[in-house]
């Protein structure tokens, strides 16, 4: 029996989606397609930050992605900002993640770990000994987080000392090594969405008067030190980065984002990173972003560029065909369709996602979204 879809001439739809199925090299990583799984917070880890067994099922079900970027994973106890997110600093975290990376590799996939420090987007109830969250400046975010008591406003942060900054840089490097020890194929430094690195970069949240604040160069100093630490620990060709130059999530903004992020991208170039990844659009009730500005900023990056933000497959293929990006990450589509590349290759229908089970919960709508075969079996009348 032959696979339908691989027989005969390609349909117009298959022709349109062809750019998604070209292989791509990102540093050390060789991807068989450009349909990547976005980092997705799911809040299903053990309270101590160790991934649960079902995470191995969840990620390995999605191993046909060109690349899986893990959910945001804290680099230290101070990096945590939400209930039941995973960590990658303790050896027990490494053991837990090893089961995940092994399962993905057994299915022929690739997975990297997104390294996360939330900074001021946290709550004292989530931090060691009820500590105040760390931030560039002692300015609370007008934002909420979910804690053991439900949604709560984020706590008043304290301005990090230079010793705090040094320790945090070391925590990033340590976490990167732990990620490789856990079998990840690399890491993505999360410098987006109003978390710690982004808080240093943008001038709404960084009012420091020392070497880490003021000029754009100074606001980028912490990012530079983190990248120095991470790339020295595991190599630039296993390190990617995620930025959200026009994002406003978590009460963040910059008075001149094009200058700030063009300089950020110029800073990245000499490292020879595996890739740069932007959130370009945010969906929901967030106003449309200026895609032209984002295109100018991202085109300053010398290496592979990955776009994210509510793409459907057709639009992703068009962006790749016109070289606006090299690959696209899909979030909600991968939550609901573990076999997304196959469905797109065959022009098959897509499952809908259930928003109520994105954050927290158990196996339901985590590891039970149907594969194509199951759909067909269910829908084919028996006898
Ligand atoms: C949604 C809920 C909690 C965290 C991000 C890590 O925005 C997140 C996140 C998203 O990058």
TrEMBL record:
Belongs to the NADH:flavin oxidoreductase/NADH oxidase family. InterPro entries: Aldolase_TIM, OxRdtase_FMN_N, Oye-like. The lineage of its organism: Bacteria, Pseudomonadati, Pseudomonadota, Alphaproteobacteria, Parvularculales. Keywords: Oxidoreductase. The keyword Oxidoreductase applies. It holds the Pfam family Oxidored_FMN. Its cofactor is FMN. Residues 20-349 form the NADH:flavin oxidoreductase/NADH oxidase N-terminal domain. GO terms for molecular function: FMN binding; oxidoreductase activity, acting on the CH-CH group of donors, NAD or NADP as acceptor. GO terms for cellular component: cytosol. This is GTN reductase. It comes from the Bacteria. The keyword Oxidoreductase applies.
